[in-house]
Specification:
By secondary structure, the protein is an alpha+beta fold. It has one domain. Helices cover about 20% and strands about 45% of the residues. It is built from one helix and four strands. It has a four-stranded antiparallel beta sheet. A hairpin with a 2-residue loop joins strand 1 and strand 2.
């Protein structure tokens, strides 16, 4: 079911889009109908540079289970990096 709720967070990093690499300053996350993935609903994450406009966007559409797995492996990678990730 669509929540129509978008959660936003400031980010610092880079993403690769249509025109190559760009600075990421925000992430948007929402559970809704996907644009491309062949599922009824997905967790959609957009990494964007708001000042650069629509071409500075990298999007992913994940099933709920894939999104949960992504959270787990991100936590595991940061844990494994220890002090280097601080």
């Amino acid at each position: 079911m669509c929540s129509y709720v978008t959660v936003k967070a400031d980010m610092t990093g880079s993403a690769k889009g249509q025109r190559g690499w760009f600075k990421v300053d925000r992430a948007l996350c929402y559970f809704d109908h996907p644009y491309h993935a062949p599922y009824g609903h997905t967790l959609n994450i957009d990494f964007v540079n708001e000042e650069a406009g629509p071409s500075a966007r990298c999007a992913v559409e994940l099933t709920a289970e894939s999104a949960r797995q992504l959270v787990r492996i991100i936590e595991a990678a940061l844990e494994a990096a220890g002090d280097a990730a601080a």
